[in-house]
Amino acid sequence: MLKILDVIDERHRLAAAVQYGAGLRVRELMNLRIKDIDSSRQQITVHCSKGDKSRVTVLPASLIELIDAQKAKLREMFKRDRSEGVPGVALPGALGRKYPKAGEKWEWFWLFPGDKLSTDPSTGIIRRHHVHPDVYGRAVIQAARKVGLEKRVTTHALRHSFATHLLEGGTDIRSLQELLGHSDIRTTEIYTHVTKNVGGTGVRSPLDAVKRDPSA
């Protein structure tokens, strides 16, 4: 699976590395905002996830410089949107109604925004949305074909690899449950059936254990 990170379209390479490195569901990945990334603590906060819950997961240390570079590019896009009067990004739930101008703030900007403006289906407002999950999903599938994977691969395979690799590296099942955001430990325990050498304690992103250049 890690070979996918090397051959996936450059536009989606960082997103794929973050998904694997943090164990995110695809919609959690696409919904990340600037404010959700804490480089100093090496953590990512996931909001309004499955079951409308929030959690904290690991931010790979090996991706911090790349994310900082991504933010620098996004600053220019953000400034351009503001100067051109583009409506702010959509906010979750009732926040948009309670704080109508918050979507124009830098901290709410998408970590993986779309290249073009599009119409918000719920409001009809033309604004900047995050990359569509289907677009990203197709990029992952194409990368899987490039490296010759014969089995069916979806974006969830990156999250699955995060879980199995952490277990194989000694992360305990309870810590993994928290990182994945599973409400039921039995869901997490499914991964123990496909891993080796499960046991021990300690949490470290599996991406940091791989000797590779994530920007390659």
What do you see in this structure?
The chain has 216 residues and is an alpha+beta fold. It has a domain at 3-79 and 132-197: hpI Integrase, Chain A (Orthogonal Bundle). It has helices spanning 3-7, 10-22, 26-30, 64-83, 95-98, 133-146, 156-168, 173-180, 185-189; strands at residues 37-38, 43-46, 55-58, 113-119, 126-130. The strands form two sheets. A three-stranded antiparallel sheet has the order 1-2-3. A two-stranded antiparallel ribbon has the order 4-5. A hairpin with a 4-residue loop joins β1 (37-38) and β2 (43-46). The longest helix has 20 residues, at 64-83. 29% of the residues are buried.
List keywords for this structure.
single chain, 216 residues, alpha+beta, hpI Integrase, Chain A, three-stranded antiparallel beta sheet, two-stranded antiparallel sheet, 10% strand, globular
**CATH topology label of the domain at 3-79 and 132-197:** hpI Integrase, Chain A
State which percent range the strand residues make up: 5-15%
> What is the CATH-assigned architecture of the domain at 3-79 and 132-197?
Orthogonal Bundle
Can you identify the CATH class of the domain at 3-79 and 132-197?
Mainly Alpha
Biggest sheet overview: 3 strands, antiparallel
Please work out how many helical segments DSSP would assign. Answer: 9
Computed CA radius of gyration, to the nearest angstrom: 18 Å
Would you identify the CATH H-level superfamily of the domain at 3-79 and 132-197? Intergrase catalytic core
Global structural class: alpha+beta
How many β-strand stretches? Answer: 5
Shape: globular
Helix content: 40-55%
Mean pLDDT: 88
